[in-house]
Amino acid sequence: GDVQVGFGTLFGVRPHLPSGRLRALAVTAGKRTPAAPELPTVSEAGVPGYEVDQWYGVLTSAKVPASIVRKLSAAINEALKSPDVVKRFSADGSTATGSTPEQFSAHIQREIAKWRKLVKEAGLELRV
Predict the structure, then answer these.
(1) In terms of Cα–Cα distance, which of 35, 8, 37 is closest to 23?
(2) Which residue has the higher pLDDT, 90 or 40?
(3) pTM of the model
(4) What DSSP designation does 127 have?
């Protein structure tokens, strides 16, 4: 019934920390989170270069006109500045950050390259 080590979201593990039954060691992001600034990053805790961020985004079909994508992007970025949205994201240890469609596309490409390299270096393969 005991787990030696695991990964979870701050939102999911935070309720279990006060009892001492679960101890948070670090955050996987590249920077400390304002929601738990006392927790070091995994990189700071001894695994240099380790960085895995959880992120969310809104995607559309490639056929959606650029004008609509820009309008949607602007509305989402505006919503992310709302005090209610900022408060909700902060409550679970997240930071609401918007971007342009180009920046988000570049982020996705970097993520694909990072995980592709890891899979290749580890010699992993998909078996169906």
Answers:
(1) 8
(2) 40
(3) 0.79
(4) -
